[in-house]
Amino acid sequence: VEERPFRSASGEPLALRRRQHSASCRELALRRPRLQLRSLSAVTSAVWLAAYGVFVLSENSMVLSAAIFITLIGLIIYLHFVKIDQESLLVIGSLGIQLTSSYASGKESTTFIEMSRVKDVVINEAIYMQKVIYYLCILLKDPQDPQGVSEVVPLFQSSQPRLDCLMEVYKSCQEILDQRKEAPQSS
Amino acid sequence: MVLKVFFPSCCSSAESGILIGRWISEQNSAVILAVVHFPFIPVQVKQYLSELQRVTKVNVSVLGSWNNSKQEKEESLSEFLEDLGTIFSHEPWIQISKEGESKFWSCSTLQKRSNNHREEEIILVYYDQRKVMLSCLHPPLDTAASTAHEAEDASRLSAIFDTVAKSKVLFMTDKYDDGPIKLTHWQSDGVEASIIVELMKQASVPACMLLTFLLSLISGACKSRMLKFWPLSFLWSKLSTCEQLAHRLQHLQVISSNKKAQNQTQLMRKANIFVSLLIDVALGILLMSWLYRKNRIGHLADTLIPVADHVAEELQDLLQWLMGAPAGLKMNRALDQVLGRFFLYHIHLWISYIHLMSPFIEMILWYVGLSACLGLTVALCILSDIIALLTFHIYCFYVYGARLYCLKIYGLSSLWRLFRGKKWNVLRQRVDSCSYDLDQLFIGTLLFTILLFLLPTTALYYLVFTLLRLLVVIVQGLIHLLVDLVDSLPLYSIILRLCRSYRLAAGVKFRVLEQQDGKPLRLLMQINPLSYGSVVQTYRLPTYSCYPKDSWTSLCKKLFLGELIYPWKHKGEKQD
User: Fold this and answer.
1) Which of A186, B46, B119, B559 lies in the 20 to 30 Å Cα band around B139?
2) How far apart are CA B122 and CA B519, in angstroms?
3) Which residue has the higher pLDDT, B288 or B551?
4) B528 contacts in A (CB within 8 Å)?
5) Does residue B283 belong to any structural domain of this protein?
């Protein structure tokens, strides 16, 4: 198990953890910084001060309870649907690739792609406005056309690591994907 | 290549014996379905397996041996198990052994025929056999339609799900069953059953037959010639209540049919229709009990006439405003007075008819309210029809205004062409130049001027009545949206996704369990359930109405030209 620090495209610190479970099974997890107490208290106090201001103007105490309600509901929605704490990639040679996103509330959303559908794992570059963004993606095979690509699945979309981190992940994946090319196909 | 062994977690505490299951050679994986423990006679086992193969159409065979020693390693037993490899020849022969209560099992293979003695890696995947057996993988692979080529590259997941689902009979027998051989299957949860469900299954057959008989009577009566005369058939097609009743009748016919559902989609559709009908009727009865308590329906009937009067009064005020100088615009007095008086007379007629009917309103409403017990959707459709009937005069005004405006616009465009010396060629569907005589030009220009200066008046009347009509259409549209929601929501699928999420599977997910060096890689395979959005999309029931087919631009164009708009058209209605 090894953990190394990297940076994301927007500058926030990320931690890449690599685990080798067996010769053909590897797990790569990217951890993002958790929700900071100072940003949470800043947003909450801003909302409550604004609500208090409206209360002073309108003399309606419903505004205050509505503000508390909205803050609570908003926080729950943010933690459960928006804030991703960790994105991990589990590569099991001969079975498939599994992508997991874990949210701050503990929810995990998983996708599993079978190895027979995976054509390759590549680093692509995208030009967005004035930036060039590198991203890692899985190319899926097209059932009709053996040389074609039917779908591109981008990885680590919310962490957006920089090229050095992507190269580490790419090398690990390729080592396992190479194994399936070495092994003879079905007898 | 890597060997993958799928082991059911319910057999982890089985006693020593042999493993039976299916070997999928293209994927180098073994799906273990059960453990046969001692004592057994090899010949009987082979007979049982061939019988099983015939019944389930799954290629079941003996795959290896399972050694569960509670104390230390029993040498003699392990040798005996190795010798079994010679009796049941299977390539490769898998040997799994578990010592005591240790979590880490050792797994090895015996390859007799292969030339290279390279140690291949083994991955042990645990799966919950009951859940995989009951679940259904989405998107479903239609076995009848797929060709042999596609079946070959069918994903390994669907092959595994298929294998386990078809071997239900193997899962259901355990060591307490009497039989020639003893299978081990610890069913820790037991087989799910309930008395109510069983009783309902027994009662459903005569109930279905009775329902089919009643439905055939009703549909026969509906199709009778008496109801097909022109005024009545026109009325039935316009009332949305009749559409909804016909739709529900069709649903009832689907669920009361004797044929069993062939596959998963049909079963889910039947269940969804049944639950939807049940909820609909329950909500309708609730609504009915609320309406009839404290005589609310009497109050409703009492307020209906004053509301209609109020609407008529508001319309009269509106017309008086239009006949004056609306919004500061100057109207053409003569045309204004003619149109205003015409519409005022209509309102007067309408009010007289309403007052004529007022003694009967309460009784009619009381009996019509009773039909809410047929379902909430029927009650909402009746509400929508009542709104349509009460605002019939607004619809009439809209049609008059639109026709007048449309005529004026066409007249204007044709005379404008005359003004410029052109003509519309009907044969060639294009504008051609044409030389007119002087008197034609003179009259044409005169008419053009008259129509142009009368345009603001007509346009204003048209605008006002179109806005009113659109308001009524929006209200009716919202009611129909609600009706469609109740009709098409697949409640049974949503509840199934909530309570038994493993039955609707979008895929699988793997979890890596604790590892130990030297032992095979251990993974746990769990079912990844379908998201709620895909559940609703896959299983939603088809409805009879289609939503506005006109895009916004064509709608605006029609409004500008004065063509009549029919925003909510039903499927199957002939296009005008």
Assistant:
1) A186
2) 9
3) B288
4) 110-112
5) no
Domain holding B127, by residue range, is 2-184
**B510 contact A CB<8A:** yes
Of the candidates A25, A116, A187, the beta carbon closest to that of B521 is on: A25
Domains in chain B, number: 2
Q: Is residue B252 domain-resident?
A: no
CATH of the domain at B12: 3.40.140
What is the rounded distance in angstroms from the CA atom of residue A91 to the CA atom of residue A28? 8
Q: Nearest chain B Cα to A93, which residue? A: B2
Q: Which residues of A touch B121 (CB under 8 A)?
A: 22-24
Q: Most B CBs within 10 Å: which of A19, A28, A94, as the mutation test of the B interface?
A: A94
**Is B4 in contact with A93 (Cβ distance < 8 A)?**
no
Q: State what percent of residues in chain B have pLDDT above 90.
A: 12
Shared domain check, B319 and B180 = no
Q: Which pLDDT does position B149 carry in this prediction?
A: 44
- ipTM comes to 0.85
pLDDT at A186: 44
SS3 of chain A: CEEEEEEECCCCEEEEEEEEEECCEEEEEEECCCCCHHHHHHHHHHHHHHHHHHHHHHCCCHHHHHHHHHHHHHHHHHHHHHCEEEEEEEEECCCEEEEEEEECCCCEEEEEEEHHHEEEEEEEEEEECCEEEEEEEEEEECCCCCCCEEEEEECCCCCCECHHHHHHHHHHHHHHHHHHHHCCCCC
Please say if the pLDDT value at position B169 is more than 80.
no
Q: How confident is the model at residue B186 (pLDDT cuts 50, 70, 90)?
A: low
Cβ separation B521–A187 shorter than 8 A: no
The answer for A 103-122 residues in CB contact with B (under 8 A) is 110-112, 114, 116-117
Q: Please report whether residue B208 resides in a domain.
A: no
Token pair for residue B417?
A: 């062409």
Percent of chain A with pLDDT over 90: 66
Q: Is residue B433 part of a domain?
A: yes
Confidence of residue B148 (pLDDT cuts 50, 70, 90): very low
Whether chain A has a CB inside 8 Å of the CB on B512: the answer is: yes
Asked whether the CA dihedral B558, B560, B563, B565 is positive or negative, the reply is positive
C-alpha A121/C-alpha A178 separation (Å) is 11
